[in-house]
Amino acid sequence: MNDSFKTTLAFIGGAAIGAALGILLAPEKGSDTRKRILSRAQGFADDITEAVKEKYASLINKKDELMAQAEDELSSATKM
User: Fold this and answer.
1) Listed residue (45, 6, 40) closest to 26, CA to CA
2) pTM of the model
3) Kindly report the CA angle at 44 between 22 and 20, in degrees rounded to 5?
4) How many angstroms separate the CA atoms of 41 and 47, rounded?
5) Are 12 and 47 in contact (CB under 8 A)?
6) Angle at 6 between CA 52 and CA 35, to 5 degrees
7) What is the Cα–Cα distance from 17 to 80, expressed in whole angstroms?
């Protein structure tokens, strides 16, 4: 993983932890608090899922670029 991806994950994780602590310390009924935590957790899971999908697509594109480059180099080397 590159540094920007790790930084993004750390930021999202820190925000989720901060939000959860803020909700837990808020003076609300327990059922309301649990609903808010569940909602925020789902949002966090969605954010992580999207980040992983984007990283996966990026890696697939990079793999395809490297494969095409290798095939071009192999083709050039066999013509010599």
Assistant:
1) 40
2) 0.53
3) 15
4) 10
5) yes
6) 60
7) 59
Report pLDDT for 80. 63
Query: Residues 5-9: what's their mean pLDDT?
Result: 82
Tokens 């569940």 belong to residue? 38
Please state the length of the chain.
80
Q: Report d(CA 46, CA 72) in Å as an integer.
A: 39
Q: Which residue has the higher pLDDT, 58 or 6?
A: 58
Q: 8 with 1: CB under 8 angstroms?
A: no
Rounded Cα gap, residues 68 and 45, in angstroms: 35
Indicate the residue type of 42. Q
pLDDT 10s digits, 12-63: 888 888 877 877 777 778 788 778 878 888 988 898 899 899 999 999 999 9
**Chain center to CA of 48:** 4
